[in-house]
Amino acid sequence: MGRYLLRRLLQLVPVFIGTTFLIYWLVWSVPGDPFAGKCGDRGCPPNYRAMMTEKYNLDESIWVQYASYMKNLLQGDFGITFGGREISDIIATSYPNTLKLAVVALAIEAVIGLGAGILTGLRRNGFLDNLVLVSTLFLIALPVFVIGFVLQWLLGVKWGIINPTVSNEMRFSELIVPGFVLGSASMAYIARVARTSIAENRRADYVRTAIAKGLPMRRVVGVHLLRNSLIPVVTLLGTDLGALMGGAIVTEGIFGINGIGRQVLRSIVTKESATVVGIVVVLVLVYLIMNLVVDLLYAALDPRIRYE
Amino acid sequence: MSDILVSEQSAPGADGSGRPSGRLLEVDDLRVEFRTRDGVAKVINGVTYHVDAGETLAVLGESGSGKSVTAQTIMGILDTPPGFVTGGQVRFHGKDMLTMSPEQRRRIRGEGIAMIFQDSLSALNPVFTVGFQIAEQFRIRRGMSRSDAKKRAIEMLDQVKIPNAKGRFSNYPHQFSGGMRQRAMIAMSLALDPEVLIADEPTTALDVTVQAQIMDLLGELQRERQMGMILITHDLGVVADVADRIAVMYAGRIVEEADVYDLYRKPAHPYTLGLLNSIPRMDEKGQELRTIKGLPPNLMNIPPGCAFNPRCPMAQPVCREKVPPLLQLGNGRASACHFAEELVNRD
To answer: What parts of the sequence cross the membrane (chain A) (predicted)?
Structure first.
């Protein structure tokens, strides 16, 4: 187990270097003067140009630029924007908002998706089953921005049940609708995977054994059936959390949430290359770690999987 | 002749009225059908057998003869749909279990009647330790504390002769060998000290040497605990040592029931005779194996008359017209063949 973990962590190193170099290269190799339009109509003053060129080694090759960037990064220095703001500061203010939204979305996915999946898996072909099948198909088929704008207009504008946008305090009550929008497609997938998994395992031999032991139905379903059926669902939830923590450009945009997704979009549009790289580095790292956590969780749920 | 002509309804253990007869477990004229998209398969067509405390009844038959479905109906673990009970009774201590509430039936499972399954790898839950699955019985059904239940579970593992029971407690099913896993399965089913144990082909998935060990263990535990045991098998070799009585099933019916000794010595049904003849023999080495010609009938379309008639070497016109009832032949023997008398009285 310890050796497995070490091996997996070592595997992260080349993946991390590869992905970050790729993004660094892409962002800084965009043709054009990186200072164009940064200082208004008159162009940037020569001493500012010299300072930024020096800071990011702009007159050196991409390799040197990347190496020096990584050197700073490992010391915790994300660099500054062209406007002189600390990039770590930008990440620190916007990332908690993204995390909050991700947690709410994940909770909604888990509770509603899993609940619907279990109920319909146990009782297939009933009214509820058909309802869930149709509504999940609906959620999967609709793009996020459609669901987002429709709910915002209906609940926020027409009926006035919620505020159309989320305030800066990011209260959890305000995040329910954005969380639902963000998690809707995954929720539908989770409901379907859970349904299939439960229905499949319900006729499994070990479930029959549990019944033959005279265990109460609650225990047969809640312990023996659920534990086995949850394995694929947990994998799905785990990878989804990794994706959710990468920010939600569309959802954050619709509901005016100052999250990492909006931040990265803004930085791309304004050619704030250092900010884009900084944010993506964080996202890559989070995603890689989440993947590792899912793999470990998978083994905790299924003892047949061994790490050697 | 007329004194043997007793109707099917009054086969052993049944008096047709559902009154208690002092039997431990009796299946009475049970009928089960599977309703599938392709049609209705009549899987059990009036099965009657019983088992008393301290005796072992072997139920013998080919795949699809209905022996496992009968057991599943007794346990109440028949998959519905497609399986539906359409008639008959299953009485435990004289009470019909098929009309009990689900809760009453649940209480009988494990404590009154327990079951061992064929494939222990799929029958044990893969994600829980073997110990957990045994201790669970004591915790949930007996309300014991975790530590007491663990102690009892280790005792059970010890009783089924699993070496290092204490260490094995926290192993998962896939870490056991096939034979050990079946022993654990036996420990689990015997945890609540059941009165009847149904063993559904308990050795089919095992090596021959291990088969004998498991059968010995089962026989030993059955005698020790004075349980009634129903041993479901298609293996005639397994039966001889352990069983007291044998019921042979064909196409969802009992075609012959007898004492082990009588049945081997002088089968009273051509199907049983065919089964016995198809056992490979050392003195016929090199010769072609003898088989019963033809295939078991399609249960959606059972031939009229005796279901065995298309494969029977003794078939006469009457066999294609009249279903032979299960006739008592005396000495606890019964046969569902029009020519049972001739078979028994031949030399």
So the answer is: 9-28, 101-119, 131-155, 175-194, 276-301
CA distance B107 to chain A (A): 6
Q: Is residue B232 one of the residues assigned to a domain?
A: yes
pLDDT value of residue B106: 92
Query: Does B109 sit within 8 Å of A214, measured CB to CB?
Result: yes
Instruction: Please report which helix (H) or strand (E) contains residue A266, including its range.
Output: helix A260-269
**Bigger pLDDT: B13 or A217?**
A217
Q: Is residue A212 part of a domain?
A: yes
Look up residue B269 and give its amino acid: H
pLDDT for the residue numbered B7: 40
What CATH number is given to the structural domain containing B315?
3.40.50.300
Rounded to an integer, what distance in angstroms lies between the CA atom of residue A145 and that of residue A253?
Answer: 9
ipTM of the complex: 0.85
3-state percent breakdown (helix, strand, coil) of chain A, nearest 5 = 75, 0, 25
Q: Is residue A34 predicted with pLDDT exceeding 80?
A: no
Q: Quick one: average pLDDT of B218-236?
A: 90
Residue B212: give the domain boundaries: 2-112+192-280+291-334
Nearest beta carbon to residue A214 from set B106, B124, B126: B106
Name the A residues in 174-213 with CB < 8 Å from any B CB. 203-206, 208-213
User: Domain holding A154: CATH number?
Assistant: 1.10.3720.10
Domains in chain A: how many in total? 1
The fraction of chain A above a pLDDT of 90, given in percent, is 24
Residues of the domain holding A130: 91-259
Band of pLDDT at residue A308, cut at 50, 70 and 90: low
**3-state SS assignment for residue B99:** helix
Mutate to test the interface with B, among A203, A209, A221, A230 (most CBs of B within 10 A): A209
What is B238-289 written as a DSSP string?
A: HHHHH-SEEEEEETTEEEEEEEHHHHHHS-SSHHHHHHHHTS--GGGTTSPP
**What is the arithmetic mean of pLDDT over B253-279?**
88
What contacts B200, CB < 8 A, 6 or more positions away?
B68, B71, B115, B116, B117, B118, B232
How many domains is chain B built from?
Answer: 1
